[in-house]
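The records we work with from here on pair a chain with its fold. The integers have meaning only within a learned vocabulary of local backbone shapes. A complete example follows; check for yourself that the lines match position by position.

:::
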Amino acid sequence: MAEPTPRRHEPRLRPAPLLFEPAEAASDPEHFFDLESIDDPRALLARATELTVAFRAAADRAVEYQAMAAAQLADPRRFDRLTAADIAERAEWTEDYAKKMVEFGRDLMRGGEGQGPVDPA
């Protein structure tokens, strides 16, 4: 599992920007962020590492937003709140994972130091 992301009171590292690729490049299965055009292995390692860090940071951030959305959807003050089973179905999670994500989201919204979600697999 990836390292936990920094919380609100810690500075967030800024990874390399993920640039969108033109549609014609994205349709080529051999093309991936122009890595295939880098001949120097040192430069290839550096750029591939930048992308790896950026994708991990993006995935971690997206998981935090998933957790906050799950917590909001499960909020008992909402007249249209969803159960953990409903959230699990929408997000394609197990019900146990949905419960953990709801708790993680609540912790994030309180500004606490959550341990992060656990891999549902």
Summary: The radius of gyration is 18 Å. DSSP finds four helices and no strands in the chain.
